């Protein structure tokens, strides 16, 4: 997971655009869908200047950009759609938190998409940005991925109602697809947490505690990603109540209310999982304490057995002249026998008292 870091001495002009993500080797590509309830057109390998003849205002238009390394391409897109430079900077700065920015003619969304890394406790993060303006939805992805493959197929095959709706409904199903990734990530975390809980019952290996802390960090990162999304989705409800926003159709606001409800469900589940991790951590320390107590109990019993034996050995180790027992022919065997009986007696006594 990437963290926001302050680089001392790095001074950039506020209007200077720079991609801050990790996918710097990905080429920038564009893909355009133009569709309505009757037909659909799909375009690739075109220039920004071609958008004048490709985009049809009476239809829904989805322009998807993969790869954010070509600053010149993004500036050309920003110039064509009259996108503010600060908004372009937010698209390129992958360290920014999820945000919503609305104007009377546009809606801008910046969101983190999270997915688990296979065979690892890590989470991979990708920032995706959306701009809804003039009946056109622009989406900006750091790299080509399969987040929206099923949505493209729905558009191509006229499955569902996506082609009957405008671009604001498309924004809803794209956001819903990203939120499904949150569910996938959270489900993977829950499987790992269940595995850790089972391990804490069998082992006190310190690696288990390290993994518990790792998954606690993952859940906190999930929480930090979802909270601003929840707040942004709530803002859309406020936009509807203000009745001053004409980018979205009134009947589609209810779809975004569903996303807000999903964000609340995710946060509640994260809190529950955090409680399970806390229980696993407490059980781990309890198991360690119990194991230490068992060791100390064993050592104490052994010490208690040897205390009287040490006393006897100490008594007969004194160098007094008048010690008649030292002259007995079988004195050694008698003392050893007494020591053996004392040891056996103490073990039986401890066993009867269930001290071990």
Write up this protein.
With 356 residues, this protein is an alpha+beta fold. Helix content is 53%, strand content 15%. It has a seven-stranded mixed sheet with strand order 2-1-3-7-6-5-4, sandwiched between helices. Strand 5 (106-116) and strand 6 form a beta hairpin. The radius of gyration is 35 Å and the shape is rod-shaped. 24% of the residues are buried. Residues 1-12 have low confidence and may be disordered.
Largest sheet: 7 strands, mixed
Number of helices: 8
Helix-strand pattern:
EEHEHHEEEEHHHHH
- The percent of residues in helical segments reads 40-55%
Weakly predicted, low-confidence segments: 1-12
Structural class: alpha+beta
Average pLDDT score: 85
N-C termini distance: 48 Å
Strand content: 5-15%
| Spatial arrangement of strands, main beta sheet | 2-1-3-7-6-5-4
Radius of gyration: 35 Å
Number of strands: 7
Outline: rod-shaped
């Amino acid at each position: 997971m990437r963290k926001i870091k302050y680089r001392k001495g790095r001074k950039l002009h506020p209007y200077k655009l720079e991609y801050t993500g990790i996918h710097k080797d990905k080429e920038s590509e564009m893909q355009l869908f133009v569709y309505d309830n009757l037909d659909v057109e799909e375009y690739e390998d075109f220039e920004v200047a071609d958008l004048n003849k490709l985009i049809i205002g009476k239809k829904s238009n989805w322009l998807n950009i993969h790869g954010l390394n070509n600053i010149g391409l993004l500036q050309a897109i920003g110039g064509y759609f009259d996108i503010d430079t600060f908004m372009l900077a937010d698209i390129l700065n992958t360290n920014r938190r999820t945000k919503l920015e609305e104007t009377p003619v546009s809606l801008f969304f910046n969101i983190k998409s999270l997915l688990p890394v296979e065979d690892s406790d890590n989470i991979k993060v990708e920032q995706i940005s959306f701009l809804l303006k003039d009946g056109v939805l622009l989406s900006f992805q750091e790299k080509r991925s399969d987040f929206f493959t099923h949505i493209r197929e729905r558009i191509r095959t006229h499955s569902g109602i996506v082609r009957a709706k405008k671009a604001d409904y498309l924004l809803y199903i794209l956001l819903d697809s990203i939120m499904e990734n949150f569910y996938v990530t959270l489900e993977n975390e829950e499987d790992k947490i269940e595995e850790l809980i089972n391990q804490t019952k069998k082992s006190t290996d310190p690696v288990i505690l390290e993994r518990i802390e790792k998954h606690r960090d993952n859940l906190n990162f999930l929480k930090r990603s979802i909270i601003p999304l929840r707040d942004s989705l709530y803002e859309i409800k406020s936009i509807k109540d203000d009745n001053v926003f004409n980018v979205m159709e009134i009947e589609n606001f209810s779809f975004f209310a569903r996303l807000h409800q999903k964000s609340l469900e995710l946060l509640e589940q994260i809190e529950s999982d955090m409680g399970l991790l806390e229980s696993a951590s407490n059980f781990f320390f309890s198991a360690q304490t119990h194991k230490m107590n068992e060791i100390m109990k064993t050592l104490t019993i052994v010490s208690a057995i040897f205390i009287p034996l040490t006393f006897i050995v100490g008594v007969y180790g004194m160098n007094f002249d008048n010690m008649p027992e030292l002259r007995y022919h079988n004195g050694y065997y008698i003392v050893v026998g007494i020591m053996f009986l004392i040891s056996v007696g103490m073990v039986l006594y401890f066993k009867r008292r269930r001290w071990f």
